[in-house]
Amino acid sequence: MRKVSAKILVVDDEIEIRRFLKIGLKTNDYIMLEASNGQEGLGIASTHRPDLIILDLGLPDISGFEVLETLRGWSKVPVIVLSVRKEEQEKVEAFELGANDYVTKPFGMAELVARIKAQLRDHVLKHQEETTFFIGDLEVDLIARKVSLRGERIKLTPKEYHLLSVLVQNAGKVIPHKQLVRELWGNAYGEDNQYLRVYVRQLRRKIEKDRMLDQYIHTEPGIGYRLEHTSAI
User: Fold this and answer.
1) Taking Cα atoms as reference points, which of 224, 94, 106 lies closest to residue 167?
2) Positive or negative, the Cα torsion across 78, 30, 15, 113?
3) pLDDT tens across 110-160, in order?
4) Pairing relation of β-strands 79-83 and 52-56?
5) CA of 139: how far to CAs of 2, 26, 85, 161, 216, in Å?
């Protein structure tokens, strides 16, 4: 069976660092995506769904802290911060915003690869445990791609299922309209919420017990949608 290589997104404005990492990551059979600023990094993260992100804090447009905070609004992807900043407070802030690890420049490639492997392994193990979610009478099995309401199987279109799976994996969090549109259709439709409203309405018709109430999918006016908190096994 052919090995599937993990995709690593590097967000760093230093081209020398990106070149160094590209050689090291390729040698270790990783696929590297790259961005030279924060906004570009967020865009690539939303469309290409990397398995791990290496993030510099000193970016030319927005800070790495802002990137991390925005990213954590809709993604649980492991993030390793790569920075010249050695102050304890900088590290504390990065971890509080959701960083998984912190590596100070200069660094050795062997150490970084070891940290990447550890984060990827932990992420896989964690999400293997979280495969079936329950929201009231609704059951969503992400491995079997099965959705049931009160024990009865519900048939969803691929787009409806994709939308529900994104909401489920970010349960309790408000996901902005723009992010959901990009997730389902890509950057070209980033400002168009029309299709999203149609699919949310269709999904609600299939999973809501009372169609007059937002029992599971809650609308945050002018912002996005939020799925009720779930329990997972």
Assistant:
1) 224
2) positive
3) 999 999 988 888 766 555 455 778 888 888 887 677 899 888 999 998 889
4) parallel
5) 33, 40, 45, 13, 12
